[in-house]
């Protein structure tokens, strides 16, 4: 019996959360949310939470390690309130609200890394996967968020780059409390999301002025991270020439690298 389990059932969630489905196990909460949406069983504000994912997915077609009992694996269905060209703002909103929820729930200080990573002491503790879909020709966004909450260790492959709130804090954090706070922050900010969020995101990142390596499908570049373009791209100064990065993996070099 997991005492935390009961708190999922009757959380004091904001009305924004129109439905909450908690599952022991699912392939991917993003995929399940899409299935529920297409079956007409979930709409705007609906959330799928799973204790464990068997086929958790990350960006760039990667798998997302989603073991049972330790993570917050969730997806929210959203009916966009902005033009298609502005949907990228939702990823920035998600990262900022996750950062706020983690900081308020734990007292830790987090940093954001482009495009959508939430970092603790230089390692990733949360990833965000924004996908689009349609129902009856109406567009929807599926916002998938994976937070490493209570892991005490990672595989040797992930150990150098991944961390959990538990490892940074030295004690466990209630996933239900974290979800509750995130939902409140997200519900508060959803209606007022606009381009001003980019400045807030930028202020929460320590990438600026640092050397970054960007890996994009086989190619790579190295330069100084300068800021965010109005369309959400990462601006990198490569030998005096400003380049806009739209996809790929970014590694921030340490002084010792
Ligand atoms: C990334 O690559 O950084 C994004 C990771 C997103 C993982 C979350 S876990 C909940 C949701 N369901 C998925 O299959 N992926 C997202």
Please summarize what this structure is.
This protein has 257 residues and is an alpha+beta fold.
Overview of this structure, please?
The structure is a single chain. By secondary structure, the protein is α+β, with helices and mostly antiparallel strands. 25% of the residues lie in helices and 33% in strands. The chain contains six helices and twelve strands. It has helices spanning 3-9, 29-38, 88-106, 165-169, 175-190, 197-203, and strands at residues 19-26, 46-53, 71-78, 111-113, 117-120, 123-135, 138-148, 211-216, 219-228, 234-238, 241-245, 249-252. The protein has a seven-stranded mixed sheet, with helices on both faces. The chain has a five-stranded antiparallel sheet with strand order 11-10-9-8-12. A hairpin with a 5-residue loop joins strand 9 (219-228) and strand 10 (234-238). Helix 3 (88-106) crosses helix 5 and helix 3 (88-106) packs across helix 6. The longest helix is centred in the middle third of the chain and has 19 residues, at 88-106. It is globular. The model is unreliable at 1-6 (pLDDT under 50). Bound molecules: biotin.
């Amino acid at each position: 019996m997991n005492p935390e389990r009961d708190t999922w059932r009757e959380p004091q969630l904001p009305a924004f959360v129109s439905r909450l489905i908690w599952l022991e196990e699912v392939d991917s909460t993003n995929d399940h949310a899409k299935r529920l949406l297409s079956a007409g069983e979930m709409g705007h504000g609906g959330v799928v939470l799973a204790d464990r994912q068997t086929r958790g997915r990350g960006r760039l077609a990667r798998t997302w390690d989603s073991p049972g009992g330790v993570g917050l694996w969730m997806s929210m269905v959203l009916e966009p309130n902005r033009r298609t060209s502005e949907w990228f703002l939702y990823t920035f909103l998600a990262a900022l609200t996750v950062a706020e929820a983690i900081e308020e729930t734990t007292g830790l200080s987090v940093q954001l890394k482009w495009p959508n990573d939430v970092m603790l002491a230089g390692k990733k503790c949360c990833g965000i996967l924004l996908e689009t879909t349609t129902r009856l020709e109406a567009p929807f966004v599926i916002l998938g968020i994976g937070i490493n909450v209570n892991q005490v260790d990672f595989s040797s492959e992930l150990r150098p780059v991944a961390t959990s709130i538990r490892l940074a804090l030295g004690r466990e954090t209630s996933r239900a409390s974290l979800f509750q706070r995130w939902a409140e922050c997200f519900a508060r900010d959803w209606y007022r999301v606009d381009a001003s969020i980019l400045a807030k995101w930028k202020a929460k990142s320590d990438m600026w002025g640092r050397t970054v390596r960007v890996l994009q499908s086989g190619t790579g570049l190295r330069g100084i991270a300068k800021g965010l373009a109005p369309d959400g791209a990462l601006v990198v100064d490569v030998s005096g020439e400003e380049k806009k990065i739209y996809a790929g993996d970014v590694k921030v070099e340490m002084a010792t690298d």
